[in-house]
Write a structure and sequence with these properties.
Largest sheet: 6 strands, antiparallel
Distance between the termini: 76 Å
CATH topology of the largest domain: Lipocalin
Number of domains: 2
Strand content: 25-35%
Shape: elongated
Number of helices: 5
Structural class: alpha+beta
Oligomer: single chain
């Protein structure tokens, strides 16, 4: 009997171990990029100073309970070891700089391992005293335990500039960071802000906007593009048509227009059972190639039956449902992403193009922006 019981206990323990292994993050790969502020519980502005009044601004909250971050000047390579000695960060000079701003390739090596894990590009790195968090300047926060990466800008009200960590609390997961509009040699009329950031529980996971290419039977897009497009749709306060397609017997279309230098735009058409449709047009204050900003235009109206038929005729004429999800034209540093999604009962399709000079995607997108949403845009903002 005891042998049988022991075998039963062993089976249960084995099952638990397998479940734990299955749920554990793969830390030999880069951390999962998660939209949202993640574990940031609160941010508080504790000081604002004028660069004109302070030639050498001094961060607040000094004392024995705070650890100054080591602002070593990096020549070409720097090694930073975590306080618990379980991993190290290597920062190597990268040719992908931004003019006079030094950019470094960051990689993490776990103790006892020889192969490093790339973490991307950064202007500097700080490890928390308990080794739980890594801050990659200017704005990435990595949770080492959960192996997830978050965007610190999401915790602030449309902050887009340069962040730097000045000191970290010895006893709590709090740190002081400064924010400036330019990295160095700022105009004297600029100001510098000091914020206290408190970390807590990770916020609830956000909605999935797109199927990822290679992980779904449905056509999808590359993960890094999905992350960027999702940030914009989240700021536009848009629903996920991919999720809608799984549970709603309806027909919807959306054009997401991400122009590098201009405000992001989303135009969505939801068909009604009576032959009419509901149009939603939105715009945020940011730029398609940068930070999304805040919602500044949000309009809804009803399309008549004739207008709805006119729109659906465009969808059919330009063979939307037969278009490939992607083409061979590579994206560039200056242009626009044109993303069109469609949902029918049990079906989802997404098409993305980079600055199409003509063709079906351009025709559908401009029809939705100009003829339906009635956006009035200068010619120079259409690209």
């Amino acid at each position: 009997m005891r042998t049988v019981l022991n075998l039963g206990v062993a089976a249960i323990l084995a099952s638990c171990c397998l479940e734990a292994l299955a749920s554990a993050p793969d830390k030999t790969q880069p951390p999962t990029s998660v939209r949202g502020k993640g574990p940031v519980a609160s941010v508080e502005l504790i000081r604002k100073a004028s660069l004109k009044d302070e030639s050498k601004p001094s961060a607040p909250l000094k004392g024995p309970d705070w650890i100054e971050t080591d602002q070593k000047r990096i020549s070409s390579e720097l090694l930073i070891t975590s306080p618990d000695n379980k991993f190290s960060l290597q920062l190597r000079e990268s040719p992908d700089d931004e003019g006079d701003i030094a950019i470094y390739k960051v990689a993490l090596t776990w103790r006892g391992e020889h192969k490093s894990v790339p973490l991307g590009l950064s202007m500097g790195a700080v490890i928390s005293p308990d080794s739980r968090y890594i801050v990659l300047e200017p704005y990435w926060l990595i949770d080492v335990e959960e192996w997830k990466e978050y965007d610190l800008r999401k915790a602030f009200d449309s902050k887009d500039g340069y962040f730097g960590v000045d000191r970290w609390s010895k006893n709590e997961n709090k740190f002081v960071l400064h924010f400036v509009q330019c990295p160095f040699d700022c105009p004297l009329d600029e100001s510098i802000e000091y914020w206290l950031v408190a970390l807590g529980q990770t916020s609830a996971p956000l909605v999935t906007y797109f199927p990822i290419r290679g992980t779904s039977a449905n056509d999808g897009i590359e993960k890094f593009r999905s992350d960027r497009y999702s940030d914009q749709l989240d700021a536009l306060q848009e629903p996920s048509l991919w999720e809608v397609s799984k549970m709603q017997e309806a027909e919807s279309y959306r054009f997401l227009w991400l122009r590098t230098r201009d405000h992001p735009i989303a135009v969505r058409v939801n068909l009604n059972s009576d032959g009419t449709a509901r149009l939603t047009a939105k715009m945020t204050s940011g730029a398609g190639g940068y930070y999304p900003g805040k919602l500044i235009d949000n309009r809804t109206l009803t399309l008549t039956r004739d207008q709805t038929k006119w729109f659906l005729a465009q969808i059919d004429e330009h063979n939307f449902w037969k278009l490939s999800s992607a083409d061979a034209v590579p994206s560039g540093p200056d242009g626009a992403e044109w993303i069109i999604e469609g949902v029918k009962p049990g079906t989802y399709h997404v098409v993305e193009r980079w600055s199409p000079p003509d063709g079906d995607v351009r025709a559908i997108g401009l029809f939705m922006v100009n003829e339906l949403a009635k956006f009035k845009l200068p010619a120079g903002e259409v690209y």
